Amino acid sequence: MTLFSPFKIGQMTLPNRIAMAPMTRSRWAYPDLVPRYYAARADAGLLITESTSVSPLSVSRPHSSRMDDDSWVPRWAAVADAVHAAGGRIFQQLYHLGRKSDPTRLPAGLLPVAPSAIAAQGQIEGVNGPVDFATPRALEANEIPGIVGQFAEAARRSDAAGFDGIELHGANCYLIDQFLRDGANKRTDSYGGSIANRARFLLEIVDAVSAVLGADRVGVRVSPHAGGDGISDSDPVALYGYVAEQLNARRIAYFHLVEAIGYGVPKRSPPPGTPLLMPVVRKAFAGPLIVAGGYTRASGDQVIGEGRADLVAFGELYIANPDLAERLRQNAAFNEIDRPTVYGGGAKGYTDYPTV
Predict the structure, then answer these.
(1) At what angle do helices 144-161 and 195-213 cross, to 10 degrees?
(2) pLDDT of 12 higher than 80
(3) What is d(CA 41, CA 56) in angstroms, rounded to the nearest whole number?
(4) pLDDT exceeds cutoff 80 at 224
């Protein structure tokens, strides 16, 4: 089996095992361009949208993606319809930024929320220039069901918009990730301390969105090695092994693991000697496993051929190469990415890359 072998996820039969990874593009100032962008990439077996906020307290760049009120349903429906018309399949990624929300864009001067009052390291682009991440407000236990409900409501909207399913963003140091890892979660209640308690928030969200969509339309993405903002965990093998076991019991659509295959890739690679999580997840999770992290056609074919994963997600390559699946099939050259246009702008660097 290779990247070009068919595969089934839930009720969908994918024509290949290539996924387009979720990538923030911040183009909603031009809503007519967004359906064109996604439809142009419909030759992927599965498209996953950019991270889409479920709450007014989850805000970052201007013109980023949202699904926190019903006004977004028709805008996203145009995307789902365009992808389906082009023969593709698409999941919407849902998330909450938590402590990484932009404090200068929050309503009425409110603070970001998080499991604990621990600020992320680094800065975010504020309204008037870069600012330090704010020290967040620790969520009260009685507030957490409300956030779980926001994910469920966003899943309902995704369904109304016609998406084939949703992916929960438990990666990249955002709110779900902040609850999972003990470097960011210092709670002493039922959402902190033990691995089971720290995973409770994610699993409650999985159960809530599964009640809306069915578990076979729900995926989960994690990035155990992400740590650019100071997040960490004392025992990632035990943590993600437990998470994989629990998600396996819930029979979700897929588990999406971000783990760079080679060391030395800036921002993505774990330090040398770090235990790799792919074999841990593969042993605990019997469903479809998507892997991401610097893959090529050769390494993608290898990881699938050896049975270590079922799909391979490509990120940056899909920004500059809308026909990436065909380019991989032909072993064709790739377009160069125009980095200044990655996060925001208009058609330039978004819908104007040439095909092979």
Answers:
(1) 30
(2) yes
(3) 30
(4) yes
> pTM value?
0.97
Residue 268's pLDDT band, with cuts at 50, 70 and 90, is low
Query: For the segment 292-303, what is each residue's pLDDT rounded down to a tens digit?
Result: 998 999 999 999
**Which CATH code, of 3.80.30.20, 3.40.50.620, 3.20.20.70, 3.90.190.20, is assigned to 7-341?**
3.20.20.70
Contact 9, 46 (CB under 8 A): yes
Give the total residue count for the chain: 356
Active site residue 174: yes
The phi, psi pair for 284, rounded to 5°, reads -90, -25
Spatial distance between the Cα atoms of 60 and 72, rounded to a whole number of angstroms: 17
Q: Is 2 exposed, middle or buried (0-12, 13-18, 19+ CB in 10 A)?
A: middle
Q: What whole-number distance in Å separates Cα of residue 154 and Cα of residue 183? A: 28
User: What pLDDT score does 265 carry?
Assistant: 47
Report the share of the chain in percent with pLDDT over 90: 93
Among candidate residues 118, 112, 232, the one with its CA nearest the CA of residue 182: 232
Q: Where would I find the beta strands (DSSP E) of the chain?
A: 7-9, 12-14, 18-20, 46-48, 52-53, 90-95, 113-114, 123-126, 129-132, 137-138, 165-170, 218-222, 254-258, 289-292, 311-314
**The two structure tokens encoding residue 143:** 């507030």
Q: Do 35 and 81 touch, CB atoms closer than 8 A?
A: yes
Domain ranges of the chain: 7-341
Amino acid identity for residue 220 in this structure: V
For 84-114, the pLDDT digits (tens) are 999 999 999 999 999 999 999 998 879 999 9
Average of pLDDT values for 321-331?
97
Determine the average pLDDT of the residues in 218-242. 95
Nearest in space to 50 (alpha carbons), one of 166, 146, 147:
166
- Among 37, 174, 295, 353, the active-site one is 174
